[in-house]
Structure formats: structure tokens, C-alpha cells
Design goal:
Length: 273
């Protein structure tokens, strides 16, 4: 697999670059285009052709362990199931769990073409470790995207999260019945009530958060015990990792996601909230 990191220079992280979206009006989760359209659950939601009660199924899955929830989702939805991979520590866990249950499980990632070099390297290490393909979805970015970021030449047309993440995510989920994320309740206040399983109105399909009730200790113990590759940026002080322009190291007294879009009112890119 070719590595996009080969075309990217390592950037200095002592200072946070100017955010791509700082001139774009926000509502706390980004610009209005960031996935605000909703797709309510059908009147008779189905799983495997069978009508189900979302609350009842959600309560059932919430009692499952992470690996049990992943195995259940694979049984119910594969091959119309997709695992989103962010190449953060949670992805190392979900990829390992899914691959152990179903070697043909499908994985994908959203490439904004502004990910850290270490993130692309983690992609390649995970793909090699498991012998899998992690499908890449990317929008047609403007020419000279990286050069303009290096030069700090961002304008009103450089809105990032809505087109590069949310719109691309919609394309990635076409024909999919359920997708899997690494969202955890300890991540932030906005994620504190995240269910393990439920209907995702943002994209109009089922969503599984198998690690919803996991803390950092559980994540790192799993990675250590299973010898799974992980993003080395975590060792450099980054608890949460996104795109280069909008990711920084949070302060000692800040939450793990405080380094994402620091200095703005944004809390999510629009994919998970």
C-alpha cells in the first residue's frame, strides 16, 4: 500500500497552526453544513429483515462486552457493516477485535489529505499487521491544498470538516446498514451519554460504539496484551488525533479532546456529533 506520508513533511508541533475553519460561523460542532440533516429511524426499523424495537436492542447490546458487541454486529450486518478507522488508539482495538471474529470484515477511513505523517504510517502498519485493506475515501481537494496550508493561505473557501469529512463519510456509507466507531463516553461531555448501539440519524443507518464504556486503561492494556500497532503520536502527548491544522496537545488540566479545534467553539467534526 502506498503511503501518503511519503509526500508529507514532518511538521513542528510546538505551536498550533491557524485552524482551517476560524472564519467560518460555527454552532459548536462546526459549520451548518457539517451534517445537520437528519434521517429519523423508520417507523418499523429492521435488522436482518426483522422488525425490532431500537430501545430494546440498544439495551441488549449495552449489556454486552466490546468483543461481544462486535461479534453480534458482524453476525447481524456483515457484509453490509463497515468499521471506521481513525488510526487512534481506539481503532487499534476495534480493528483487532473485528479481524479476530471475521477476517473479511470491511474497514475504511476518511482521508482529508491533512492527516499527520504518523497517522499514515499507522495506517500502513495496521494494514500490514493484519493483512487487510483499509479502504480510502477522499473528496477531490483543491490543487495545492498542502502548499496553501504550509503558507497559511486559507480563505473562506477552505472550509474543512463539512466537505472533507462529513460529505465524504456519506459517500463511504452508501449501501451500508451499520457502521462502527471508536466513540467513548469518557472522551468528552458531548459523548458522555453515547449508546453502544442505536439509530444514527445523521447518516440514516445503525451505529455501533463497542468501546463506549471503556476507559484509557482498558484501551492501553488491550493494545499491550495483543501487541497491536498504534499511533505513536499518543506517546508524544496527543490523547486525541485529527488533522494537522486542528490538532494540538491539550494542557495538563484539560480534557483529552481539548486539543481538537482549540480556541474555537467546535467540539466535533460532524461525523459523531
Amino acid at each position: 500500500m502506498s503511503s501518503a506520508s511519503e509526500q508529507l513533511q514532518v511538521v513542528t508541533r510546538s505551536a498550533r497552526p491557524r485552524p482551517l475553519h476560524e472564519d467560518v460561523p460555527t454552532n459548536g460542532n462546526g459549520a451548518s453544513a457539517n451534517g445537520n440533516r437528519r434521517y429519523p429511524a423508520p417507523a418499523a426499523p429492521r435488522i436482518g429483515g426483522e422488525v425490532v424495537d431500537p430501545a430494546e436492542v440498544g439495551a441488549e447490546v449495552d449489556r454486552m462486552s466490546a468483543d461481544e458487541a462486535i461479534a453480534w454486529a458482524i453476525e447481524k450486518f456483515h457484509p453490509a457493516l463497515r468499521f471506521a478507522v481513525s488510526f487512534q488508539k481506539t481503532s487499534s482495538v476495534t480493528v483487532d477485535m473485528a479481524h479476530r471474529v471475521e477476517p473479511e470484515a470491511r474497514f475504511f477511513y476518511i482521508d482529508t489529505e491533512l492527516l499527520f505523517p504518523e497517522t499514515y504510517e499507522t495506517r500502513d502498519r495496521l494494514a500490514a499487521h493484519f493483512g487487510i485493506e483499509i479502504e480510502r475515501f477522499v473528496q477531490e481537494n483543491p490543487r495545492g491544498l498542502r502548499k496553501r496550508w504550509d503558507a497559511g493561505e486559507w480563505g473562506p473557501n477552505d472550509e474543512c470538516c463539512a466537505p472533507r469529512k462529513v460529505a465524504t463519510m456519506r459517500a463511504a456509507l452508501v449501501g451500508v446498514d451499520c457502521w462502527v466507531s471508536g466513540v467513548r463516553r469518557v472522551d468528552s461531555d458531548t459523548r458522555a451519554s453515547a449508546p453502544k448501539f442505536g439509530w444514527d440519524e445523521r447518516f440514516g443507518l445503525w451505529k455501533l460504539n463497542p468501546l463506549a464504556d471503556w476507559d484509557d486503561k482498558q484501551i492501553w492494556n488491550y493494545i499491550k496484551d495483543r501487541h497491536v500497532p498504534y499511533n505513536p503520536l499518543h506517546d508524544q502527548g496527543y490523547p486525541s488525533i485529527g488533522c494537522m491544522p486542528c490538532t494540538s496537545i491539550p494542557g495538563d488540566d484539560e480534557s483529552s479532546r481539548a486539543g481538537r479545534w482549540a480556541g474555537t467553539d467546535r467540539t466535533e467534526c460532524g461525523i459523531n456529533g
